[in-house]
Amino acid sequence: MSDSNQLVLEISDKLLQDTKDSIKRRIIQKLEAARKLVDFDKEVSAAIYVYAVEELGKLEILKNVQNGKLPYRPVFRTHSTKFNKAKEYLKNEKHEECFYLYEGAFDSDGFDSDGFDTDVDANTEARMGIFYVDIGYDSTSHIVDNVKEIPTVDAKLLSDCIDCLEKVVNNWN
Fold first, then answer.
1. Coil, strand, or helix at residue 144?
2. What stretches of 38-106 show up as alpha helix (H) in DSSP?
3. What percent of the chain has pLDDT over 90?
4. Extents of the domains making up the chain
């Protein structure tokens, strides 16, 4: 491709299936790790869970590979694309409960609400912040004004999300 940011790879049917199988196994491993961490450190558990959701999006990307052409970069390698693919799949399959990480994460409009967009999509980046500390600053003055906080997580809801996503992945095809 002419754009250096785009890369389409050729993949055989066998390697495509092997990749899907490997991703499914890794998602289940992530969910098992997240499940074990819920009582010890629910924020780390939630971050691992978010990675597992993103990997579901990767499965959805692979499902749509045609003629052995995998849109590797930027599609397969882009976090927001994978997360949005997972979100779309979970919505279409009526598994919105896989995103209730804390009370008030959704309003009555469900997936298409501003509640989802701000509480889940935006907090996905913040959730990854569990692995590092970041700061907030005023974009006009460039003065640091806070240490970014990690979104709170409800342990019971997170456990329910883990169970939900595990069922989704085990039934995914």
1. strand
2. 42-63, 79-92
3. 54
4. 7-171
